[in-house]
Structure formats: structure tokens, C-alpha cells
Specification:
single chain; 78 residues; mainly alpha; 2 helices; 87% helix; elongated
Length: 78
């Protein structure tokens, strides 16, 4: 029983120490700036992904066209 009381006391003291030293110090203006910049960041990300997708599709179609021309040349001789 004595060990249990010591364990509870140590736990309570540790928790109190952690709560006193771990207080978050948030700057309201920084939080507001972060929240207002999210839509712009999201829009930029989407635009970059669309551009990368278009470039990939352009390259993919060019490769497919070249492969099709090779296949046609193999089977259809003029």
C-alpha cells in the first residue's frame, strides 16, 4: 500500500510539473496568418499538379505515338 501511495504521489507531482512547464505560447497574429495562407498554398499546389500532369500526358502521348508508328511500319510496308 505504501508503494502505491508513493507511485501516485510521484505521478501527480510529475504531471503538475509537466503541465506548468509545457504551456503553449501561441501568437494570435501568427495563427491568423497561417490560416489565411492555406487557400493560397492549396491553389498553388493544385496548379503545380495540373501542370505536371499535363506535361506527363504530353510525353506519354508522344511515346505512344512513336510506338504506334513503329508498329505500323513493321506490319504495313509501302
Amino acid at each position: 500500500m505504501k508503494k502505491l501511495k508513493e507511485l501516485v504521489l510521484i505521478s501527480v507531482v510529475s504531471l503538475a510539473f509537466i503541465m506548468m512547464t509545457g504551456v503553449a505560447k501561441a501568437d494570435a497574429q501568427q495563427v491568423i496568418n497561417t490560416l489565411t495562407s492555406v487557400p493560397v498554398k492549396l491553389q498553388n499546389h493544385i496548379q503545380m499538379e495540373v501542370a505536371k500532369t499535363k506535361e506527363y500526358q504530353k510525353n506519354s502521348w508522344a511515346t505512344a505515338k512513336a510506338q504506334l508508328l513503329k508498329l505500323k511500319a513493321k506490319f504495313i510496308k509501302n
